[in-house]
Amino acid sequence: MSVVAGSAAQLPFPDGAFDAVIAVMMMHHVSPLILQHCLLSEAWRVLQPGGVLVGVEGLAVGIKWHLVHFGDAVVAVDHHDLRSRLSSLGFANVEVHTRRSKFRFSAVRPEALAGDDNLRSAM
Q: Is residue 72 assigned to a domain?
């Protein structure tokens, strides 16, 4: 195993390098919101066709969440909007499930089809 320092919004890996990308309790620390979008787009890019994105995030509710992040640069991840955000990037089989103060999500980069590169560049 090796550790690579870099920005999640501009990953230093080639296209299709991984069969899974995992994001655990970190997306809300990526601000501004456009960088969260870049992060999700980069996850799509570095995934192999058929690869899976999975993650867990906290819901930005309650005093505890706000106290834990007091003074932090945070942008809460909108779990209501995440399904459409992932779908708009080309992910398929998008699932978002909430439970108590957290939500989990998963999505699949579809197997490559003829013309995918043209569709992706239009997004």
A: yes
